[in-house]
Design brief:
The protein has 201 residues and is of the alpha+beta class. The protein is 56% helix and 9% strand.
Length: 201
């Protein structure tokens, strides 16, 4: 019998995707659930909802709460936190590179370092030089990866991935989707999503 699986949908510009990404591995291993990393772009989904930026920017009170909540949350998890500027940051290039990496064996490590670069180190993840530096830090030669990430194959895959997210009802990040189609939204739903995925098998 195949191990239970959980799709982890995230956007690098998503604040709560940062703690989710940094903590998801150990509880998934403990639950015996295989993670399927699903980077996508929230921007097109937000536009379809009538938003031209993050809802946290559109609603200042909600935004102020979110930043303080994230400070508390990352502090409890022992994660460094630095508010990125600007917010949200362009995540297109990093997402394309992540798709290349997830087809190899370094994708998860790259994703964690992109989140750390943005939310702990204050780096600009939309900058090709920064993405190249992250690749070098994890032992991957940047030039061939960046060239592949800019190709039509990866661009088409990312468009299809984002459309898939929208078609299954993903409206924010992080979102966790079980094999049976149960959707759980938010970092605080990770444990519930893992438990549900384990029961489905």
């Amino acid at each position: 019998m195949a191990a239970p699986a959980l799709d982890f949908w995230f956007d690098f510009a998503s604040t709560y995707s940062y703690p989710a990404c940094m903590r998801i591995g150990p509880p998934a291993d403990q639950a015996g659930v295989v993670l399927r990393w699903r980077p996508f772009l929230l921007g097109p989904i937000f536009k379809a909802q009538g938003f031209d930026t993050s809802p946290f920017n559109l609603h200042p009170d909600k935004g102020r709460y979110m930043w303080r909540d994230l400070e508390r949350l990352t502090g409890d998890l022992g994660l460094a936190f630095r508010r990125p500027h600007p917010f949200p940051q362009p995540s297109l290039l990093a997402t394309r590179v992540a798709m290349v990496g997830l087809a190899a064996d370094w994708g998860a490590a790259f994703c964690r370092e992109v989140f750390r670069a943005q939310f702990a180190r204050g780096m600009q993840i939309g900058d090709a030089a920064v993405v190249g530096e992250i690749l070098r830090e994890i032992g991957v030669a940047p030039d061939p990866v960046l060239a592949r990430a800019g190709g039509e194959v990866v661009k088409d895959l990312l468009r299809a991935r984002t459309q898939e997210a929208r078609s299954i009802g993903v409206f924010g990040a992080p979102t966790f989707v079980t094999t049976g189609g149960e959707v759980f939204w938010g970092n605080d739903r990770l444990e519930q999503a893992l438990a549900w995925a384990a029961r489905e098998n």
